Structures are given as structure tokens and as C-alpha cells.
Amino acid sequence: MDVRSTPSYLYWLFCQFELITCSYLMEPWEKVLFYSFNLAMLGLLLYTTYVCVAFHASSAFQLLCSFLGAPRENALSVVK
To answer: Which residue ranges run through the membrane (predicted)?
Structure first.
């Protein structure tokens, strides 16, 4: 893809989005609310995905370490 055609491709994608969601029929204030809601939901989805993936990766790494025989340090053994 050529760099000069990137803006026109993004515009084409936006037009497709407006056609699919029928947002081209909305008034400007309705579009602002609709796009704000969609962006907020996308942000929440990305944040939740980031948190859950990090938690599951940490859990999987701890499980893998326990299978490989590298026990984690216990907090009580450090204190004693």
C-alpha cells in the first residue's frame, strides 16, 4: 500500500463504517453521542483485555514454573 493512498483508504473505511451503522442518517449531535459511546466501549474492551491477558499470562507463567520445579519463594520464609 502506498503512503499517499492511506488517507483515501482510511476515508473509504470510515464511509463503510457509516454505511454499515447507518450513522450517515444521523444528525451531528447524534453522531457525537454515537461515536463517543462506541469509543468508550472500545476503550473499555481494550483495557479489560489488557488486564485479563496480563492476569492469565501471569497465572500461566506461575503454573509453568511450578511444573518445571522452580518453586516460588514463600513470603513467610523470607520473613523468618
So the answer is: 32-53
Are 9 and 1 spatial neighbours (Cβ–Cβ below 8 Å)?
yes
Residues ≥6 apart with Cβ < 8 Å to 62: 72
Mean pLDDT, residues 65-79: 63
Burial of 2 (0-12, 13-18, 19+ CB in 10 A): exposed
The C-alpha atoms of residue 27 and residue 7 are separated, in whole angstroms, by 25
Residue 26: Cβ-neighbour burial (10 angstroms; 0-12, 13-18, 19+): middle
Taking the domains of the chain in order of start, what are their residue ranges? 26-68
Question: Does this model's pTM top 0.85?
Answer: no
Q: Which residue has the cell 506461575?
A: 62
Kindly state the cell numbers that stand for 4: 499517499
